Amino acid sequence: MKEKEKLIIETALKLFAQKGYNSTSVQEIAKECKISKGAFYIYFPSKEALLLSMLNYYYDKTFTRILNIKTKGDSPRTAYRKQLTVLYENILEHKDFIGMQMKEGSLPYTEEVEQCAKKIRQSSLQFHIDSLLNIYGKKAEPYTAELCFLIEGISQIYLECMILFGYNVKPDQLADIIINRIDDMVKGMSERNDKPFITLEEASSLFGPLTHGRPDPLTESIVKSLRDKINSLNTNSSLELSESLDILEAEMKKKTPKLAIIKGMIHNLTESEALAKDAEQLKYLLKQQHI
């Protein structure tokens, strides 16, 4: 991302927090950035496009920080605690903007915003699923989707108390509280042998592909490269390419992946000149793994 684009996004975020999205004009954003209104449109064709870039910027920033945390040598529980702490820190860094949305709900509801929100929710749920399995193993496996919903719901209510009502809880303290609550829920569900309220497959139909398990590091590296390149594309096919990669990644994680789906999604990716090289490398790697 160019420095000027980043400046506009961060300035708009500050103004939206102060006045709300609908009450902030492009002229005000440009003035605060010390650029002309015409210069604004060089980087963003509309205020709605700026909002979409802002959401993607927030998503990339949050999950890049989570992935970059040093957890080598840590237990899964300690690693998850560190990651939750960073997640909550990132949310609270933008508490003014988030607080404004909690009070007013002023963001426009467009298909693009909906898709971006779905992508953020899907990544968040998958992050929790991977961590739950690393910590609790098979004990948590039947309940991963339900536990994720409970984690998200509890976190949201606690964060609302902190953002809207001034509850003074530090991010690492909140992480401890959430993990302790998860301990209790996993213990209770497994000991009672509860029937899950919602299965992982059902959750996937609502929020996009969610899976148990992760691919090997080399495969992950290529998938990440593809994801980064798709996010940097500014074409009409970006959404379709992102969906193809989502489906491909989910299928690769299955115990018995369907070859036709994998071949089809890789073919979709190779149709893009910018992605063809990585897609071919991934195809070769999966073939070596007999997938």
TrEMBL record:
Query: Know the name of this protein?
Result: YuxN
Q: Where is the HTH tetR-type domain?
A: 2-62
Lineage, broadest ranks: Bacteria, Bacillati, Bacillota, Bacilli, Bacillales
Q: Which residues form the signal peptide?
A: none
Single GO MF annotation: DNA binding
The organism named in the record is Bacillus spizizenii (strain DSM 15029 / JCM 12233 / NBRC 101239 / NRRL B-23049 / TU-B-10) (Bacillus subtilis subsp. spizizenii)
Q: Which regions of the protein are recorded as binding DNA?
A: 25-44
PROSITE patterns per UniProt? HTH_TETR_1, HTH_TETR_2
A Gene Ontology biological process term: negative regulation of DNA-templated transcription
Q: Which PANTHER family match?
A: ACREF/ENVCD OPERON REPRESSOR-RELATED, TRANSCRIPTIONAL REGULATOR, TETR FAMILY
In Pfam terms, one family for this protein is TetR_N
Q: Which SUPFAM superfamilies match?
A: Homeodomain-like
Query: Keywords of this protein's UniProt record, alphabetized?
Result: DNA-binding, Repressor, Transcription, Transcription regulation
